[in-house]
Amino acid sequence: MKLRGRVTRSDLEGGYYTFSSGKETYKLEGGGADLLREGVSAEIEGQVPEDVMGIGFGVPVFRVKSYRIL
After folding, report:
1. Which of 32, 37, 63, 67 is least surrounded, with the fewest CB atoms within 10 Å of its CB?
2. How many CA atoms lie within 13 A of 35 on its CB side?
3. pLDDT tens digits, residue range 38-52?
4. How many domains does the chain have?
């Protein structure tokens, strides 16, 4: 799955990064320091595993395989 959107940071549960495509929001799993920063626009590729539950209060996990900063 490929998505374009923006990275934000949530301070809940110790903090984690989310990615919003405008339609969906995901908790990011993976990616480098250049991706995991508040406000970064990017195109990410990966998958949403069905067997993983995140701590993000119902936000699905997105496993990043590759990304491109826009």
Report:
1. 32
2. 22
3. 999 999 999 998 766
4. 1
Contact partners, residue 35, CB within 8 Å, separation at least 6: 7, 28, 42, 44, 64, 67, 69
- Residues in Cβ contact with 47 at an 8 Å cutoff, skipping those fewer than 6 apart: 1, 62, 63, 65
DSSP 8-state code for residue 36: S
Q: What sign does the dihedral 29-34-39-41 (CA atoms) show?
A: negative
Average pLDDT, the chain: 89
Q: Which domain holds residue 43?
A: 2-69
pLDDT tens digits, one per residue of 2-16: 999 999 998 887 789
Phi, psi dihedral angles at 7 (to 5 degrees): -90, 135
